[in-house]
Amino acid sequence: MITEKKTQFLVDELDQLKKDGLFRPLRVLGSAQDTEVVVDGKRVLNLSSNNYLGLTTHPRLKSAMVKATEEWGAGSGAVRTIAGTMTIHEELERRLAEFKHTEASLVFQSGFTANLGVLQSLVKEGDVIISDELNHASIIDGIRLSKAERSIFKHRDLDDLERHLEKHRDKRVKLVVTDGVFSMDGDIAPLAGIVERAEGFQALVMVDDAHASGVLGKNGRGSVNHFALDGRVDLQMGTLSKAIGVLGGYVAAPQPVRDFLIHRARPFLFSTSHPPGVAAAGIAAIDVLLAEPERIERLWKNTARFKAGLKRIGFETGASETPITPVIVGKGSVAMDLSDRLFSLGVFAQGIGYPTVPEGRARIRTIVTSVHTDQQLDRALEAFEQGGRELGVIA
Ligand SMILES: *Cc1c(COP(=O)(O)O)cnc(C)c1O
After folding, report:
1. DSSP string of 17-40?
2. Predicted model pTM
3. Which residue, among 116, 129, 51, has the nearest Cα to 251 in the 3D structure?
4. Whose CA is nearest to atom 7 of ligand 1?
């Protein structure tokens, strides 16, 4: 009873969310993350994962994870700086650095903690972080934790970036940070222009390739490789949790960056390292990226087919240039209704509204993967056509 009273303020806030139509219960999967999943007991076609290359269920990753667990145990038992660094953690970092064409890399528990750890520690008072206004929440939070000044430039606007660089010309360290692929719109950062402008001011550049690794560049090396900027981007952050199919975040960078982060990045210093099986599956994923480039080819083929289908039906897909394809419907309530209707038609695709995206730009966010079949994509398009008509989103 006492607890109930103490948490009443939370109940009030939740009631408000419900009134605003923003209360969203978790959707529970009763199956592996695959092209078809069981959601809340119903088998549906899945357009909601970040499992771009189907690696969550790849036999090589699964067996690597099992084997490493048998050999090394279920957990690492300590933070990296005490006794939680096993040879397998170091091997993963060597492989990531080699893959990304950098001198070194450092792995964190997740992409989120990688961004927190880097941004919080690398720069300090008297420095500045210059950040695209649509950067991911983990970048925003990392900047909040940093003592550096924050300076936000307009989305993908190089002239505005230059104004911010000019304004902070005299700062000790200037760090420009951008998503490589933006997670809600699927558009790509103008990285070549960003690097050029930054070089003019000796500013560091950091790119968050959470949605670009495994998707852009040779064998999925990411946006830096995609734009032929190898060696010119100082910090390549990435995640092992999306196209890589497992869990974790990393920064690929020159050796001094790694050495510094080991001494200063708080999620690295104060949180336990990955279970050995996670590291082993990450290594196996890199092997798969190198051995099976046809997965990435198929991802782009499927993306083109699905986008063309949506356009033919009459949907707006915004500025997307990647497999992240927003189906923009306008009002938040329409996005939620369409998502519900799609679900009843056997397609799982989440509605996203304000404040995650601007008001009036609510959408269904879709990601097709390399393992969706043509028949599955056609089925999804049929459901979108029917649901869209019924709700008056398309004519
Ligand atoms: C998902 C995401 C992250 C966080 O990665 P996790 O490994 O899921 O913690 C960071 N940045 C961007 C742009 C993302 O989309």
Report:
1. HHHTT---PPP-BSS-SSSEEEET
2. 0.96
3. 116
4. 111
